Amino acid sequence: MDTTLESAGQRHPELAKIVEAVKAGEPSPLVPVRRLLSWFHAQRRGFYVVQYIRSRLRALGVATDPDFDSVWIDSEIRLVPVDSESSPVSGHAAMIESDDQLSATAIVATPATMVGGGLDDPTYRIGKLEAANRGVVSVTPTQTTDQAVTLMLANGYSQLPVMQGQREVKGVISWESIGARLALDRTCKEARECMSSAQIIDSDKSLLAAIGIIAQHQYVLVQAPDKTISGIVTFTDLSLQFQQLTEPFLLLGEIEQHIRRLIDGKFTPVELKEAKDPSDTDREVESVADLSMGEYIRLLETPKYWQKLNLRIDRAIFIDELQSVRRIRNDIMHFDPDPLGKDDLSKLRKFVSLMQSLRELGVVQ
User: Fold this and answer.
1) What is the pTM of this model?
2) Domain 128-227, architecture per CATH
3) What is the DSSP string of 124-144?
């Protein structure tokens, strides 16, 4: 996490101005979630970023409506006043980074004070998906089937909601519903004659609750709190979302395996133990597999140990790249639902490519 996070939000002029206005009884302007994050020098809603921002806003006497961690990252929220005395979190949240993980420590006034309220509902809601917030292309019940088919072909859709206004869903017309009626020689001139019942889910429902519906019907319509249809999530959208979540984990797993193969068989047990985090007294290191990412770096940044690898590449650059991988690893190991930034994902891919190249050249067995 950026070390400037702690003071950033306190001194940001836009945040200070809005807080002052809200406390004076004026309505808050709409603020994109991304802008709120930028006030704290953050780009994604990682666990500790969310908890820190929430605690700082609470200390300023405000909160967000809706909660900035429960909506799509490009949604807009408002700041609203809260009673600071009712806040269950006391003291100051400090961020510290160990070799492989970030941890938050709450410093409280007295040992007897119990700290709580820092954790919120961890449910991953379908409303966080981009597709659930993109809006929908729809047809009215009396539009022709030809119009619906043309819209589906033009946009690459498999279905369209049949709607009367922004809130009233009459049904869904799809290739399947059209084909079923044509096969039975049924009249299918207007959308209302070809539609099937719609699958609708509230935006605050769990994504896991929607998976079964999407698997069975290939889509689900997402209903916003104001009862408008905010988007449609299809099986394709779901596949892309899980790819975004899982690809970084797969890349990191491959990187760790490459590093282990690079080190394996080149160091004595004593040398491996020297790389262990000295503060971790309870863990035994008996093989390369027992080392953490930070300990790989501690081992390889030692010149005499680097020479054992017999690599004709620059040690400082390699270690710097590995440090970047470690930083990304610390971030995503909390399964942050926001997609990894393009730069970070590219860095992981390039490091994997580097290690694969070394292996192809016979440097790593």
Assistant:
1) 0.64
2) Roll (3.10)
3) -BGGGSGGGGS----B-TTSB
